[in-house]
Amino acid sequence: MTLKHELRAAMRALRKRLAEADPEAAERAAGHADAFPPGEIAALYRAMGSELDTDALANVLHRSGRRLCLPVVLERDAAMIFRAWAPGEPLELDAAGCPAPLPLADAVTPDLIVTPLLAFDALGGRLGQGGGYYDRTFAVLPDARRIGFAYAGQQVEQLDLEPHDIRLHGVLTETGYRAVP
User: Fold this and answer.
1) How far apart are CA 172 and CA 106, in angstroms?
2) Which residues contact 6 (CB under 8 A, 6 or more apart)?
3) 20 CB burial (10 A radius; 0-12, 13-18, 19+)
4) pLDDT score recorded for residue 114
5) Residue from 132, 8, 126 nearest 76 by CA
6) Are 15 and 127 in contact (CB under 8 A)?
7) Which of 1, 3, 55 is nearest to 24 (CA)?
8) What are the phi and psi torsion angles at 46 (to 5°)?
9) Residue 3 has what pLDDT?
10) Main-chain phi, psi angles of 99, to 5 degrees
């Protein structure tokens, strides 16, 4: 078992405990969305398991006039695409088994990509689930602002990043938005 695999397992367990201990964290985090960088189109995700839920954030961003979209996995080893979406619109499972907009939704290019994570550090390091979907997508959309969405308790001192790991520009938690210096 690799160190990264062990860290992922430990951080999944921690995130689950944080979710159980603070069911209102996502709502409080959404209250800090006004600190986000500018951008017309914001990509969110549909929370699975103990990921911080984006429903409240979607509503805040939608009411503020930002267009929303969700990622769609079409191929397992490729970058994701994004399709326009608004709260309440129907979803279907994509190739990775994640809720995604229907194929008839317009494909769009987001200015901001809000990403789930298992751990983050103050330098913008992000530990994801290990599938590489977000890093591949960040690589093909280098101008998009990359924002982690997590519990404050998911912060670690420092992550050991690999060459393909792409840093975040900031992280939004229930305690506020922090831009990466």
Assistant:
1) 27
2) none
3) exposed
4) 98
5) 132
6) no
7) 55
8) -95, 120
9) 84
10) -60, 130
Structure tokens that stand for 114 in this block: 């809000």
Q: What is the 3-state secondary structure (H, E, C) of the chain?
A: CCHHHHHHHHHHHHHHHHHHHCCCHHHHHHCCHHHCCCCCEEECCCCCCCCCCCHHHHHHHHHCCCEEEEEECCCCCCCCEEEEECCCCCEEECCCCCEEECCCCCECCCCEEEECCCEECCCCCEECCCCCHHHHHHHHCCCCEEEEECCHHHECCCCCCCCCCCCCCEEEECCEEEECC
The residue behind tokens 């995700």 is 45
Structure tokens at 169: 């520009």
User: Token pair for residue 121?
Assistant: 């550090």
pLDDT along the chain (181 residues), means of 10: 85 97 97 94 96 97 97 95 97 95 97 97 94 95 98 96 93 97 84
| Length reported for the chain | 181
